[in-house]
Known about the structure:
It is a multi-pass membrane protein. By secondary structure, this protein is an alpha+beta fold.
Amino acid sequence: xxxxxxxxxxxxxxxxxxxxxxxxxxxxxxxxxxxxxxxxxxxxxxxxxxxxxxxxxxxxxxxxxxxxxxxxxxxxxxxxxxxxxxxxxxxxxxxxxxxxxxxxxxxxxxxxxxxxxxxxxxxxxxxxxxxxxxxxxxxxxxxxxxxxxxxxxxxxxxxxxxxxxxxxxxxxxxxxxxxxxxxxxxxxxxxxxxxxxxxxxxxxxxxxxxxxxxxxxxxxxxxxxxxxxxxxxxxxxxxxxxxxxxxxxxxxxxxxxxxxxxxxxxxxxxxxxxxxxx
Length: 278
């Protein structure tokens, strides 16, 4: 940074785009771009030239990483002006933003900048017409089904005990699969990998994408359903041959699901040592 800088700078220290794999860096890069675009679009006209956004990668600015003692990425740093009317003496030290506490979403960083750094602007995200179209189609389908089926159903056919049990099971599966971690951290549903293809699984135990919650919950649900069938349903089958065949099929399905979970963990961390069928 220049010693005679009359304006503040927000710098993102990251490994994104280099030869070092960093899933959080890939996830946060587009969010940081949203923050920069939001400032250019929504900041007061008199203040748009008051703040600039930059990106520093490990490969190109290693000396800056060492000088600031950056130990993990991604991490944004705010550099106040060190000269001119806005310089504030001892307050000119750069301030880092702990994304583990703030979160990886653009809204979280903007909120931090407004509350802690004295800026005043909001997050701007372009309208996602594709997402709105999908939501519209799903809502239309649900309304159509409801209009057709509800008049033909009797409330007596519903079991509120079964409904309550189903809600408890769904919530339990969501919580065990990392749903709250994804929501609190503001982690994206999935990202585009280096080749441009969708990346469904983050290659670290300390991180995960939103879609992984659904994958893990589905495998947990399948394993649980197999156990329930083996304990409660299959023993009630009267035909012994049919009972034996069903038990073998369900047990094979359980072993396949459990093997899939182990394979999933090996994708997360190749050093994971356990496997069952594959």
